[in-house]
User: Fold this.
Amino acid sequence: MHGVRRVRQSQQALEAKKLKEKAKIEEYLALTNDVISRRKNKDLSQDALRLTSRLLQVNPEFYTIWNYRRTIFLDGIFPNSSPEEINTYISDDLSSTMTALKAHPKVYWIWNHRRWCLENTPHGPGSETEGDPNGWKKTNWDKELYVVEKMLDIDPRNFHAWNYRRYVLASMAVKRSEKSELAYTSRKIEANISNFSAWHQRSKERASLLFPPNDVEVNDVCSGEDPELLKSEISAIQELLDEQPDSKCA
Assistant:
């Protein structure tokens, strides 16, 4: 960097640095060989799970180890666990992957594992006759929506985050209303009229309101479920065009 004086390291310091890096590499290779060997031998123990945690902290893109971790859960740990214990494992993995995402927000395999966790959250803590049988699911999905909203606060145009948001909304135990999602996209568009991802999301929500699933064969736009919605959207777009006539996003 300009204006920053470089500090020359002594030969001894450079050698010490090389030795430290070499030790880290050797430790990583030994850990990798250990985990791969356990996977080959179908080790589904708690020790194996713990070692996958260590390895994935170092290399979160090691998708084979993510797969192995899920196998340990499904075939080794979950069959001998209560729903409460399974939910604890799931919650712990959601927490640990959230920490990993802060350092590696674009690593697909972390997001993929979060999906798996959400989809494998057990029913509970209530039952069909008492309490809420979907309580844990609701909690985890609601938290995930909060996570993706934080992502979009940081980068409102992140189309990967918008895609993930659609996945979360479609999978939630308690569905969010289309109108509440319209309000969310309105806020994003008002903050930045050129947010094409927000416009795309809005178009999908408008379509679902105008044409519910049982009306998928409708060809005439004016025969939608609620023509007033269409009129109000056209009016809103016209207002935006009047305010910013040079904008191409609307």
Notes: The chain has three domains: 22-80, 82-176, 178-250.
